[in-house]
Amino acid sequence: MITLDHVTKLYGSVIGVNDVTVELGAGAHGLLGPNGAGKTTFLGLVTGQLRPTLGRVRVFGEPPFGHPRVLARIGYCPAADLLDRTTTPREWVRYLVRLAGFSAVAATTRADHALEQVGLTAAARRPLATLSKGMRQRAKLAGSIAHDPDLVVLDEPFNGLDPVARHDLVALVRGWATTRSLIVASHLLHEVEALDASLAVILGGRLVASGAAGEIRGLVDALPGEVTIRCAEPRRLAELAFRIGGVEGVRIDGDSVIVATHRPVAFVEEAAVRALDEGLHLAEIVPADRSLEGIFGHLVRLHRGVKA
Amino acid sequence: MSGERVELPAAVWAVAGFQLARLVTWPRLAMAAVGVAFPAGVMLAAGRAARGGLPSDVQVALLYALIPEAVCMLGLLVTMCPAVADELERGTWAHVATRPHGRRALLVGTWLAAVLWTGTVAIAATGLALAVAEVERPMAVGAMFAALVVLSCAGRAALFALPAVVLPKRALVASVGVALVVEYLAGTIPALVNQATVSLRLRSLLVHWMGWKRKLPTEMQLFIDPQPAWLHVLAVAVLTTVLLTVAIFILDRRQFPPSDEV
To answer: What is the interface pTM, i.e. ipTM, of the complex?
Structure first.
């Protein structure tokens, strides 16, 4: 369905995506990466907004940029909020359907149906400015499916939503994946996991990992966490850390010792007791870095063949 | 479902309707009201300033400067120039650009909306100005101005489509520059270059339809083209088509990095 063959996209001297090769078949796919990783550029290439600087992009067998036949089969929901505040969701969705080439009557029917699907019928005639962020997000989602595309591409569809709205929209989008192909970009692993999608991880414009959700989760879970301990005698603390089991690596950074371990909680407990026994005064213990940036950092190192 | 599709024309009408609906706001309506009233105000002031009133031909010349030139130009600057910039600022560009004919429909639809909105304001301004002026054969003059307004709006909206797609974020400034350099500088150079300007065609049509050719001093004849009226109308139509085609060609190939949006 989607093929990117050694695709690079440059914005002047800035790299958007860097030598990405990937093939995505029909079904649901998650595109995971932190902000600025290149997700939106990737989606821009797939949805025909951008043309690759190098390489080849094919969607349904054709380059999407400048091909109305391909674009007619794609529904795109960008990450940016709708700032067209005086327009109502019904007017907005109807407009998008008409832009897809449908008659006024067909557009009205389709817009009403799509708004009903996303649960926005009651607020369909209120200006966008008076709606909550979640409601505007639903209006955008309705616009992406109203023309009945074969492929729906959603960029950070759950961004800025409260937990209830997020839960509702995840359920809604998961339902769509049963009838059409879907690409969802997000910086939150659990959101994409909830969609039962296969995953591709992008960072710094590069595709650093791809596979089934379980495989990526396994990869993430297998990554060692980093514990940072600040101490007046970092060399002695580093020696002590090496004597504790399960430690993958130790490095000293100023008065801090950074320990990579698969069992950070047990390590912290044991290190604290041993430090006390050996008369080492620990100034600060920062728990394992399981933040997304940390995980992505590890994935990049794995991608480059560097052991964590 | 695909049988429901009527493709590009539906999309163009959709954009035109949507853009016109966007224009119906109190600030825009107030600007339109100023555009309607301003030429009549100037005509009244000029009539009072001239003892015994202005001659009919002078009033028509003044109306020409005020309506097909000033009102149309200003109206088109605010309606046509932001064709792409507005979409980038409102976060709607990505929605439009990913529709099958979105880019073309956006440009042609906005052009149509700009012509309809500005043309309506300018024709209303003509009616009001003629009501307060004392020109001979006001109905005929009114009909002539309606034709000049339509040609002015169509041609110049197409001209402003170029800065709108080339320099979307500086389109207003670039369009003022284009208007001054192309329409008012190149348009008054009696050489081949002025043949490709709307202003030469409008001036020539005004002189032709008012029957002023024989009254014009020889040096002023340099600033008009003595060809028949139908040829000037055809020239504006060709110019409009060429300019819009070039603008569509450029917009079809434009790429905006995600950071350019909103």
So the answer is: 0.85
